[in-house]
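Lab notebook page, bench 4
Experiment: in silico fold of construct C2
Operator: M.H.
Input chain length: 202 residues
Purpose: comparison with the prior construct
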Amino acid sequence: KAVAAAIVIPIEFFMLNPSGKPFRHPGGMLTPYPDLRHYTSRDYGNRVGAYRLLDALKAAGLTATFAVNAAMLTRARPLIEAIAADGHEIAAAGLHTDAIHWGGIEPAVEEAYAADTRAAFAAAGLKPRTWMSPVRQQSRRTLDVIAAHGFDVCLDGEVVLDLMGGSADLAGARPFGSDTLATVFSTTKAVSAIMIARLVDQ
């Protein structure tokens, strides 16, 4: 049987001295400035790792969506050209990892982020219709703002495929459905830890 899967590969610019506002990108710098160790490991992905992924995708006959920060369009132009040459989709992933869309963002700032992102892609000769916000965060206006700039597909945590199958009983008479009870196995550890921490805190 065939299985559908979406491969999304982020191409992000992690600046050496981010503002960290409204919060730090979870993939960003970890130690005080200048955090050269983590900066170079992030940059390695764009300089070397991404090309290895392109080779692997080509060998497997697969295509992917590369979610690209606008800042990378000029910083890594040969990479962007290689992605396009191999027939992969290029999606817009905002300006950079320090331009985060979030619940408290000023409307004018968010509008500028989207407009500047669209302008950067247009200057690079690209017109993506797919969007993925930095850190996959949104405000209540994000979807309307990006739609106004021509992004009509959003990858920010939206369900694009919901697969289930098999039998809900040993005889194979009852199909497994969205309402079938299932064992949660180790996922209870996280719930238990939260409950214990809450009790300790009280």
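Observations: The first helix runs from residue 36 to 60. The radius of gyration is 21 Å.
Next step: discuss at group meeting.
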